[in-house]
Design brief:
Elements (H helix, E strand, L loop, with lengths): L1 E9 L10 E12 L2 E9 L5 E9 L6 E4 L17 E10 L2 E11 L5 E10 L7 E2 L16 E9 L2 E15 L2 E13 L5 E9 L5 E12 L2 E10 L12 E7 L6 E2 L19 E8 L2 E7 L8 E7 L2
Antiparallel strand pairs: 1-20, 2-3, 3-4, 4-5, 6-7, 7-8, 8-9, 10-11, 11-12, 12-13, 14-15, 15-16, 16-17, 18-19, 19-20
Amino acid sequence: MKWKKYGHIFVPDGSRDWAMSHAQVPIVKQLDEATLRIYYGTRDVQNRTRISFFDTRADAPEDIIYVHDAPLLPLGEAGFFDDAGVMPSDVITVDNTTYLYYVGWNTGNTSRYRTAIGLATSTDGGASFNKVADGPIMDRTMTDPVSISCQSVMHVGDQWKTWYMSYSKWEARNGQTEPFYEIKYAVSQDGVDWKRPNHTCIPLLEGEGGVACPTVIEENGLHRMWYSTRGSGDYRGQKNESYRIGYAESEDGLTWTRRDAESGIDVSDTGWDGDMIAYPYVIRVNGRLLMFYNGNGFGRSGIGYAEWQDA
C-alpha cells in the first residue's frame, strides 16, 4: 500500500508583491463534487506569510481553474500575535459557517519566532473571511509554555477535537536557535474555547527535532494521522535530516501507534520533492483518498498531490 504521486501542481509565479515565493502548508476544502479549494501560505516581499487560495478540478487537481488574486486576511497590528505573518492551519465547515484556523507569527529575540492559533470565519463558502478576534484562540499556557502551531480539527456530534503542534524548547544548533515540537490533543464545545489536558499523542523519538502539521481522518472507527517528521540536526541543509512524512493510527484519537514505515510516501529521486516532503493534508474526495503536500524548501518549490493505492 502506498501513495501514487501525480506530481507538482502549483507554485506562485512571483508576480505579486504579497506572493513572491512559497505555497506552504496546503489546506483543502471540497466546494462541490467538481471543485476543490486549496488554501496555502505564501510569502511577501518582507518574507511575511500571507494566506490565499486556488481552485482545482476535484477529479484532476492538476487542472487549476482559478487563482485568487489577493491575500485572505490582513496581518495584525504592531504587537499583535499575527503581526509578522498568517499561515493556514485547517479549514472546516459546520452549519454553513466555514472556520479557518490559522497560525499567527511574531518575530522573536532569544528564539527566532513565536506562534499561536487564530480563527477566521466565512459565510460565503470560504471565499472571504473575517477574524473572530484580534487575539489568538490558542496560545502558550502553563502546559504549552513555548508556542503552539499547526493543527488538524475534527467536528464529531457536539464535540470538536484538535491535534496540534506544541513547542517544547528552543536550542542552539548550527549557529542559530532551532525549535523542538510534538503533537498534543485538545477538545472544545464550540471550536473556539479549547480545553487542553496536556496529552501528548506523538512524542519525539530519539534523534528527532520535530513532529509537525498533523492531518487526521477517521474512517470505520480508525483514526489515521499523517504528519511531518525531521531530525534534530541540520534539517535545512542535510537531506537525511530534512522533513519526511510519518504515519500513526489510533482507535480513540488519544493513544497512537506510530507506523512511519507505512506512511506510503517518500522523497523522489530528483526534482521538486527530491530533498524534502512535508506538511501533508489528507482528504477523501469522491471516494478517492488524496494527499496534498509540499516538497523542497518548506514550500518554496510548491504543492503536489498523490492518491492512496490499496494494492
